[in-house]
């Protein structure tokens, strides 16, 4: 009886306090470490959760920093490319002026040879001076390779500025109407210009991210167009001055004339705004129609008498036309500069915007991390307080459970804690025990209240210790009355007893 009653009470209590079971499991083996790592009530758990909450916003911040840094690198690279284009345009402008002066010098020298020295030498000196001035204005001189013009010699010679000028001066000193021929003149100037243009076209990139490539390509085509037309004009002067072109000269004239016009059309196609300027040139130029007619006459290459006047007219018209094309070239250079300045301004704005974003991200990032850290600390503090409250609640719950199990039978208390109803039940056989203290009224009258309480407490504590040995349940204790029952609420037999006992002041029982 004793063991069964004790087992029933203990099992009932354990079935209710599930929190205690889980709490005990947290402190066994690896589960204890796992609980500490996840529970913010522990120091380790707080550190781990704080680290997680800081890393979580830091990941997108780091990604934004990396992305912004990558964009900044792209912007800086883009700006360097645009700056390089600006330097290329500056170099092309200076180099283009030299090429222009060499082209004019070639035409003047060729006309001087064709007309047997009719053109005054002073004009050639002026032309030479303008070429030298263009060379002096060069900020830097590129390393160019010029093939030597001696017959049967294809050697490549690299010339710097001083070597080029020495070679040019030597060539000028050897010009004479008797010893010099037009092919020699053409070969030297054409070789020099070709080397300069080759360097220029290699330095200027056709494709870049700035969108200026169309203007650069048009600029290169226009330079080569002027070079080809200028070469064809030299052959034209030869035709009108000598009256006939040899087959080789005729083929070269046709090639350069067609190539020059095609390059010009391509240049106008890449920059449509140049078409308006070119149309105005053709409308305002009086001899433009004559140039077209002269070109058709030369293409027929019919033998005729050489005429210096016709050669001069053709020379002046072509020189004027090529000068107008050079104005078109200067307008294109101005357009390129404006476009480059716009692109540079755009690159500066992009760089400023990128730096601003990067600075904002770098400033805001620690603020966000500090705010997240403070929020995590606040949450952890709240979790600690909540854990303390939970512990206090558990203690109070254990107290209430203990009091409830003292006031009610374990089975009834269990049903009430599980939110179940306790229906009325009929018991056919129970044993009820009543006890009473004989003369309690006289004893209470003679003793002080504290002595009465101590006396009752001593007796009933002894009763409570004794009934734990049997399958009985204390029903009530009122004054000197003590009531226990057996067979309810857990049925344990079919007998029925009703026992009454009296307890004397001497501690003797009287059972009736």
UniProtKB/TrEMBL annotation:
The keyword Phosphoprotein does not apply. One of its GO terms (molecular function) is adenylate cyclase activity. CDD domains: CHD. Gene3D superfamilies: 6.10.250.780, Nucleotide cyclase. Its main location: membrane. One of its GO terms (biological process) is intracellular signal transduction. This is guanylate cyclase. The lineage of its organism: Eukaryota, Metazoa, Ecdysozoa, Arthropoda, Hexapoda.
